[in-house]
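Trying the structure run again after the queue cleared.
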Amino acid sequence: MRMGTKSLLFGCHQVILHPIFVTAAWIKCYKKLPNPKEQICIIIHDWGYWGKPNMDGPEGEGHPRWAANFADHHLGIHYGDLCMYHSRFLAKLRHHSVSKLCLPDKVGVGMMPVWLWVSLSASSVLSGLLLGDGNLGIVSNNARYQMDQSQQNCMDWLQLIASSFRIARIPVSDGFPKPWLLKSHGEQYTGYLLLTRSCKALSDEYYRWYKNGIKIVPKDLVVDPVCLANWFMSDGGSRKNGISDITVALSTCSFSTPDIDFLVQKLNKLDIYPSESRKDHVIRIYERHSVNKFMDTVSPYMVDSMKYKVKYAYGSDKWIN
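Done. Tokens:
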């Protein structure tokens, strides 16, 4: 099954749930119900993902065209534009302003409860974890997932990950996640461990993510907000840099320079522009607009125990001196 189809059936663009939350966001943003034709556009605007091999490649980025063509013929040109330009990518490409549907589409995703988006986005969750501290290894001819965390009070996050895996039919080992005695530089401390049993689904992921036993970045990777948030929670951080600035750091697990450049290109598509410096194989974001855009992108998907990482720079109405 292709990636776009999976997103419509089981993912964050699920054909029933996504329009419900976009409708709720429309009411929140515009203080009124959408009219009947607008409601049809809300329902169909992402249907063009059906059959697409990717989400943010050339095919996936053109997904609004199907709904736009349908709306043009059956509802009128105005409603075709409503569907077409809910995509900021196509609006920018065609030098057109975004449509009225763009804002509710983004706000609606943020209105989904954390437990729901985790349930719908197992693939994005796993991708974010593998960009960070998560690892896959071959056991008994199939792969299993393992992840240990030293961050305190992160059990709520690990339990959500485990729930997401179970829904995706990835078997979590009995009793996990759980506290675990970890060692680092000769010292022992209590951390947390998540472990799955080996299965075919994880074997498929292993051969996407590993080449000759070395972790790589798959070229079909989708870095969506759920993926980015889990990468940030797993192996990212933020710190104040003076009174008004914030530095965001994303570790890259010693990926190759071409892989890191590829990840930076994915961040650019989210309107996030890291520094050109790659010291210690860490992607760093300094520029205020990019920092605030990063935080706006990930904050709806941060679990309570990880929200301490969300820090805004000056220029955002969420900035705290």
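The mean pLDDT is 89. Worth checking whether this holds up in the mutant runs.
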